[in-house]
Amino acid sequence: MHTFHGSITALVTPFRRGAVDEDACRRLVHRQIEAGTHGLVPGGTTGESATLTHAEHRRIIELCVGAAAGRVPVIAGAGSNATAEAIELARFAEAAGADAILAVTGYYNKPSQAGLVAHFTALHDAVGLPIILYNVPGRTASNLAVETIAALSRLPRIVGVKDATGDLARIALQRLAAADDFIQLSGEDMTAVGFNAMGGTGCIGVTSNVAPDLCAAMQQACLDGDFEAALRLQDKLAPLHDALFRDTSPGPVKYALSLLGLCSDELRLPLVPPPDAVRKRLREVLEGLGLIG
Question: What is the mean pLDDT of the chain?
Fold first, then answer.
């Protein structure tokens, strides 16, 4: 059975002329695994799930599972602001062979904490896969309280949380309140080493799309308890973390991948390409890392 730790890449969804680029999807998965990435997330925020059709969302889960071929865990994005829709997508991911699901809090609806408990409990009861909660209030306007996470962690298949709040104080509070074996994964690349030092076991990140080997080495150093080495790698990656979030993600990461010749930088409206200043900075950073000439 897979465990969920280390560098877990929130994969982009490559497009070509408006459609999902299936060949590029497979190439990206193979590149990630060969570089040492510990796990993959198709159909998350970075994968532009908000603008995928249901058929496209299901297809990219299938593509990722097929290309990964059991080598690393696939944590399928299966969240929605409608509980019934989240259950439908989670059941599909389970049937497709995913190892777990990543379930975002209800966005736009702004559910109460009681509503969030009811939502995730219904999802838990509907599928047999492990569930990782995804708390990203900056995107959803819905924030899982520490007490809510603690309560949900007692359900046997709710195994962890991707915490993208950027609030490192929460990590200690969640660790103390939640079940003993509850997993905490960072959802913010820049603070991932500090997150691990506070009790986390990895990061579901964006930067690893571009520099999977460096991100995997940094996370492995954390898992090995070598935080001096992890900090050296984090310092090397910090300019890339910064550049990739100077405009709405995944615009910058797709542009970076296009510079590497891995996929197009095509986005779905209402997202548009990053401005010239961000592109210039990304070129400089990739050159500094030796990723482009």
Answer: 96
Give the C-alpha separation, 282 to 277, whole Å: 9
Which domains, and CATH codes, for the chain? 6-224 (3.20.20.70)
Helix axes 227-244, 251-259, angle to 10 degrees: 100
Q: At 256, which amino acid appears?
A: A
The DSSP letter of residue 168 is: T
pLDDT at 1: 47
Q: Percent of the chain scored above 90 by pLDDT?
A: 95
Specify the pTM: 0.97
Q: Which amino acid is at 101?
A: I
Positions annotated as catalytic residues are 134, 162
β-bridge pairing 15-16 and 39-41: unpaired
Name, in order, each residue with C-beta under 8 angstroms of 215's C-beta and a sequence gap of 6 or more.
Answer: 7, 9, 37, 189, 203, 205, 207, 208, 237
Average pLDDT over residues 55-59: 97
Rounded distance between C-alpha atoms, residue 72 and residue 33, angstroms: 7
Residues 9 and 31: their CA atoms lie apart, in Å, by 11
What is the rounded average pLDDT of the residues 200-221? 98
Q: In what order do the strands lie in the sheet with 6-10?
A: 39-41, 6-10, 202-205, 183-186, 158-163, 131-135, 100-104, 75-77
What radius of gyration, in Å, describes the C-alpha atoms of the chain? 18
DSSP 275: P
Report CA-CA distances (Å) from 223 to 45, 134, 184, 237. 26, 22, 13, 18
> Region 223-237: what's the mean pLDDT?
98
How many helices (H) and strands (E) the chain has is answered by 12, 10
